[in-house]
Amino acid sequence: MKYEVVIGLEVHTELRTKTKIMAKEYETVIGLEVHVELATKTKIFCGCKTSFGADPNTNVCPVCLGLPGVLPVLNRKVLEFGVRAGLALNCEIARFSKFDRKNYYYPDLPKNFQTSQFDLPICGPGFLDVEVEGEKKHIRITRAHMEEDAGKLVHHGNSITDSDYSLVDYNRTGTPLLEIVSEPDMRSAKEAVAYMEKLRAILQYVEISDCRMEEGSLRCDANVSVRPIGQKELGTKTEIKNINSFRGVERAVEYEALRQAELLEEGGKIIQETRTWDEKEGITKSMRSKEEANDYRYFPEPDLVPFTVSEEYIEEIRKTLPELPDARKERYMRCFGLSSEDAVMMTNDKDRSDYFEAVVKAGADPKAAVNWLMGEFASQLSTDGIEIAAAPVTAENLAELLKLISKGTISGKIAKKVFADMWKDGGGAEEIVRVKGLTQISDTGELEGLVANVIAEHPQAVADFKAGKKKAVGALVGQIMKVTKGQANPQVVNQLLAKKLSEL
Questions:
Q1: pLDDT by residue (tens digit) across 388-410?
Q2: Which of 436, 462, 480 corresponds to the end of one domain?
Q3: Does some domain include residue 227?
């Protein structure tokens, strides 16, 4: 056991040393390629369903499998969603666009090519502004383009690197994607996560994707390089494929940057390659050499004609855009008095933001609503492994609970017990408080007797208080709360205790 402790300390010391070297000598440069699964009912070029969780290879047809003699037809909803996303991301919308063939072969790509967009994407340059540790960061977006997804490889083993064999599910083949490519403007893993969170929120707000990373509808490829601080030229980058969680993005970027910095410190050379993130081991692993655009032999898709997008079409879509996260954040700060940090937390997830709005609309104090949503409520969601949309406590019922606290009807401690019952049974707070007799005791006449009894029964605490030990009051308050099963109003109790003790 002694040696295990020493080894652990050495590992942590080594990690801290590497981190210090990284921070002092090298700058991390990050660009992200984010793949968003669009929430259409059917695939991009055929009528197959896009529903998640179907039996393997059941949502397929000759078109999405690329069988001879078939012709694709563009799903109009995919184009609409592409334009909606572009407008929300401050992108230029192309008036003339086309599809291209991206030629490569992997087992999950039945056509031997992917139908994507190359030189004329639907969305041109744009940007996102994010906030990290109180500082604003401007991140440029290079482009956003429509494309089809590949199939899914199911590996027989812990990961792709140690599998004996892999199976292929083509259900996802042809599912519409929007690939959003950033410039290499991020300089830390935290900035990368902030960008991803902001991007997810916007895409949810404009209702083009559910962005469920655990189901693969939002995936990220991270391009990471390091360079000596002060150097203008970019270092050699590696691409980390298919990261499917915010925590994974942060850990993968941090690890890869440290790996590259350590290699350079040892006199080594960074190889441009594609790597995979191993979540269990917490490391990136080499997969293959990184392809260049020429390797894909792009050429215009001959089975899909180029298309134009009119100004009238763009403006009609622009009119349908909802209030976006930044505008909502400013409104929360202006109208509800929230801090910038609280406003960000209440707007970076659409479902949580909508729930928060409903709680406040039902009469709850905005700050109290924030505290509960990020505290007790979030904890219960995490315990049950569900999203806020599936929460058994309605916004109106939570508002009812918060109003009982603000009126002094129940204490914060009792409120947690009531909330647990609400979560379990879905009932209203007032009914639970009434049936279980949980109303907070604020009557001074009733509490004066309890205070007198506690003082009489705990002479040592009284003596300690007289000796200058002010914390002794806490012990007396605790006794009263114990006797009343937490229902005594702590503010009134403290006032009465202070008065009685001063008279002794």
A1: 999 999 999 999 999 999 888 88
A2: 436
A3: yes
pLDDT tens per residue, range 465-504: 777 666 767 777 777 777 777 777 777 777 777 777 766 6
Calculate mean pLDDT across residues 407-426. 89
* Token output for 393: 């406590």
H or E stretch including 397? helix 395-406
6 — pLDDT class (breaks 50, 70, 90): very low
Tell whether 93 is covered by a domain: yes
Strand order in the sheet with 113-116: 113-116, 100-103, 299-300
Q: 302: which 2 tokens?
A: 């001959």
Range of the domain at 202: 7-311
The answer to whether residues 87 and 192 belong to one domain is: yes
Domain boundary among 289, 311, 333: 311
Could you list the beta-strand ranges (E) of 231-343: 238-243, 273-278, 283-289, 299-300, 307-308
- Rounded to 10 degrees, the C-alpha dihedral 340/194/35/87 comes to 40
Domain count, the chain: 3
Q: Do 479 and 399 lie in a common domain? A: no
Q: Which residues contact 256 (CB under 8 A, 6 or more apart)?
A: 222, 224, 238, 240, 275, 284
**Nearest Cα residue to 19 out of 322, 280, 254, 344:** 254
- The CA distances from residue 11 to 16, 89, 251, in Å, are 9, 42, 17
- Beta-bridged to residue 274, according to DSSP, are 239, 288
Do 196 and 337 reside in the same domain of the chain? no
Confidence of residue 242 (pLDDT cuts 50, 70, 90): confident
Q: What is the mean pLDDT of residues 266-288?
A: 92
